[in-house]
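Checklist before submission:
- one chain only
- standard amino acids only
- sequence pasted in full

Submission:
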Amino acid sequence: MFKNKEFMKYTLPFLILGVFYMFIYSGLQNDHINVITPYFLAKGWTAGQINNPITVAGYVVIAFYLVAGIGMAKFGPLKIIVPSAIVLGLATAGVGLSEGIGNYGFYAFCLFLVRILVVPLQMGGFMLAGNWFIKYRGRALGWITIGSPLFSICGISILTAATNTLGLQVAYVIFGVAVVAIGLLSKVFLRDKPEEVGLYPDGSSTPTHDAEESDSISLKQLLSESRAWKLIVSYGLLQFIIVAMMAFMIVRYTFIFGESGLGPVFLWLAIGAGLGIPMSYALGWIDDKLGSIKASLILCVLYFFAIIPLAIMNPSSPVILIGVWAFGVACMTGGMPTMHPAITSYVYGRKKYQAANKWIMTIQAILMAFAIPYMVYFVEAATAGGPPDYTKMTPAYVGLIIMDVIALVTVLTMTKIPDANLADRDYI
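Returned file contents:
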């Protein structure tokens, strides 16, 4: 990968900044809800009040995926990533400052922006990886998506500790400044595609086999293809599950064990997720060597390790069950971001990736938009009329198990789809 030193000059900074893209994306899309929800519940807000801006933003994101995708395809991903990251950082700081000034409207506006503007970090990171890598695409994606479980391991606990010791204002302002810095560093060190600087994907000395192919695909054409719908359904459900799981996992544990019983949860999250982090890279390696369909089937199975323990958890459950859950969470949060762009590139190829992806992710966003209100329904049922009743959240996780089964079966039907970039891959 790095035999070409000029290629390394641009891709090594991407592999480093890409980890931060996914760290920020995972943290500010879902995970930080575990921090603000108990914080504001303690101040007398309802789960609906706290999360309504995210719910509304989830519907707007449906259109924003398309707008951002079109913008990246036309102007290049960095033209969208950099300004989005700067505004995202300012909005993140605004969430903290809103608590100090006691203005719910300002809080709602800033949180709304945060939920929307994490999208370009995800889409842009995926597109940059697809532009610069083909043979090593899975491993590159596997590396940068380590950022997602990293937030699960340390981000939530650090942000929680910072909020408890420094206050929500200071914690979120620091986080916001860091996000702005990542945007500025991207402007300085990254380029949209290797051809801009006289290079080719993977550091190769020759153009790719699809260099002369058209990079367009119409919505009508896409929607007429069963392979597109299989991608939409399988990974749309997997994304729904990850949003629902990550946004309320600490809330679920708080209802089961109480705030004083969260110590083992954070400990096992660190241990289990530490063991699971290599799975992000391992799935990328499997993608490179065996193909995206086989790697996706493994991912669907790994999801059960995250969902089932949380579904059956109760106050007397053995601690090892939390460890199994934590391992599953790391595989889920690291594996899904790796495999989503990988399988889309597998099906549509490097040239058509963004043309197809902008529509696929837009339609998938319709499913994702209902993940937060889906969980809020069960959270409010569990908190209605007295102390939290964790059993009233259990049906939510049963539903997620069913969704994972559907995703697994859908991926199984994709086994005969060929790799669009087969000529440039290096399978065993």
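Reviewer check: The domain at 9-193+217-421 is CATH 1.20.1250.20 (Growth Hormone; Chain: A;).
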